[in-house]
Model the fold of this input.
Amino acid sequence: MFLRSISLINFKNYPETELQFSPKINCLTGNNGEGKTNILDAIHYLSFCKSFFNPIDSQNISHQAPFFVIQGNFENNEQQDDVYCGLKRNQKKIFKRNKKEYQRLADHIGLFPLVMISPADSELITEGSESRRKFLDSIIAQFDKNYLDNLIQYNKVLSQRNALLKHFGDSGKFDSTSLEIWDVQLIEYGIKIFQTRQQFIQDFIPFFQKHYELISGGKEFVGIEYVSHLNKQPFDEALSNVLNRDKAMEYTTVGIHKDDLEFTINQYPIKKYASQGQQKSFLIALKLAQFDFIKKIKKVSPILLLDDIYDKLDDLRVKQLMELVSSNNFGQLFITDTHPTRLSELFQLSNTDFKTFKINNGCAVEIETKIINQ
Ligand SMILES: Nc1ncnc2c1ncn2[C@@H]1O[C@H](COP(=O)(O)OP(=O)(O)OP(=O)(O)O)[C@@H](O)[C@H]1O
Ligand SMILES: [Mg+2]
Done:
């Protein structure tokens, strides 16, 4: 599966652009602020029906323009799919595949899988546990249909339980029977989620460590540990042990909603002890392991977007990474760089198709094409 072409009208700083892509490697070069990442974001729209960066769709319409249109043509085993995304100011976003409008955008997501590697991934290290749970949930939800349902149910029960604890606090009356009704359900869904997460992390770690080793040349050893209250004791015991605390705090202080992933390098926490380049390598290995998982499940290579890949990585690591992603295990790639030629110099040496585009103030021009097999 790959994106053959894209056309943009009034999308961010692109008034009107049409591009034909290589099925393998596409390098987008240009100075800061010219529009390289914007092309990646338009591709992200075609896959996920939304921007990777800005959740407010209307802010992606060119300043002063009344609408934007993004159109892409995908090819998959000879089949062609036209994907259309259009937004007029103050109107609902329209999304179509082969001229047929979607009633639910959720029906589109997953048809053209994509993984984005961006400097914004650093929040997985720097931010709180919620961002790591989101990362975990977004991968598991792609292959386990029950998982998302269990998670939704868990969160519903959790908010009911918290409301009841609040009510106990406000009224000064405690009633263990009504709390138990929620506890039973919280425990049931919580255990299922815990077991799925535990199994997933176990399966995910070897993929992740393999990628880190390839990028770093085996210089450091990295780890991921799944941290959960349920690792230490059964959920029912944990809940009854903290009952007095929950009553005092008026919310549920233990459970899988507090789960976290602990990232380590040579057994030390990555946030405190890893260099910037090591952190970046860690994040890339996480995303590439995500790529492997999606590929295993969907049986198709996701499109891979690599934004600002030289940012914080040394030349050797970029070279290892480029060798890895240009191999046959990967499908179509889009890579941005501010340097005009260094990516193309790397790919000239490899036996792969690639194209280079020069991006200049919202105008993209194909400047180099190498085709190995016609
Ligand atoms: N809604 C919009 N309308 C017009 N221009 C916009 C809009 N949103 C963003 N831009 C412009 O897009 C440009 C940024 O593009 P982009 O982020 O793709 O740059 P880049 O080439 O990736 O740069 P860098 O190398 O710094 O990452 C900025 O000039 C910004 O003003
Ligand atoms: Mg950019």
